[in-house]
Every structure is written in C-alpha cells, then in structure tokens.
Amino acid sequence: MTPVALGPAQAVAMAALDRRVRMDPWSEAVYHALAMRQEAELWGIMSDAGELIAMMVLAFGPWDIELELIGVDVDWRRRGLGECLLALARERLETTRRERLLLEVRHSNQPARALYERHGFRIDGRRRAYYEAPAPGGQREDAILMSLTLAAPHSPL
C-alpha cells in the first residue's frame, strides 16, 4: 500500500482514526489547521475500500523534521503499515536535506519503540511526566525522546 498526501478534506477521517488509535486524540479542527500549514505534511494509507487506516504527521524545521504522530488502525496493525510510513519519513528527511528526524513516544509503548529502533532511531533523553495518565487517577507517563540522524548530513545552506 502506498502512502498518499492528506489535506483539509480528510480532517474528519484523520480525527476519527486518531480516536481509534490514541489515548489523547487531536480534533478535526487540529487536523484541518495542520493540513493548512506549509511546514507540515500529513500522509495516509487507505484500505482498498477507501478508508483511512494509517497516518503520519511530519513538521518541518530548518534542520530537523519532527514525527508528530504516526498511527495505524488496530485492525490493520502488524501488516507493515507503520514500517511503510517510517520509510516515507526517512525519504522526506533525505529529499528535503534535513539532518535529523525527531520523535517522542510514551515510555510504555514498547511496540512503537521497537519499531523506531529497528529503523535506526536512538534514545536521546526523557521528558518526565510528559503524557497524561492513561487512566483517571493514574500517574503521568514519561516521554522517550528519539532521533534518527542521516549518516552524512546535508547542509541546508
């Protein structure tokens, strides 16, 4: 399955997928605003029936790209869709001549952390108590900071 660029018209579908895959989903308005930002790219993978089943949000800075979100519908996990989106993120890193791809992930999200490590991401640090507690009355959760650096970074100048 090939990723496709997503725009404001897919904001409803992105918000719906986000509600199915994350504890702290973004609203339709957030996705619409992101799709309008010149320094952001939204990518998705559609099922044969045309349903959005995986998505990724990239935010571009002068030297880095931040992987703001990657999500795969629960029914479609373990089929290589996350791998496909990460390969595209790396391609965008190389073609836009940025130096690093950055992300943060919940400490407890071992499947995502393993996926990122398989793709060459390294742990850079931790943000203590960054994420809301997964359950009411629970403890906030740390964010693990990770990055992927190109072997031979390109100068943006």
TrEMBL record:
Gene3D superfamilies: 3.40.630.30
Record key words, sorted: Acyltransferase, Transferase
GO molecular function: acyltransferase activity, transferring groups other than amino-acyl groups
Keyword set includes Acyltransferase: yes
Domain of life of the source: Bacteria
Xref: InterPro entries: Acyl_CoA_acyltransferase, GNAT_dom, YpeA/RimI_acetyltransf
Name of the molecule in the record: GNAT family N-acetyltransferase
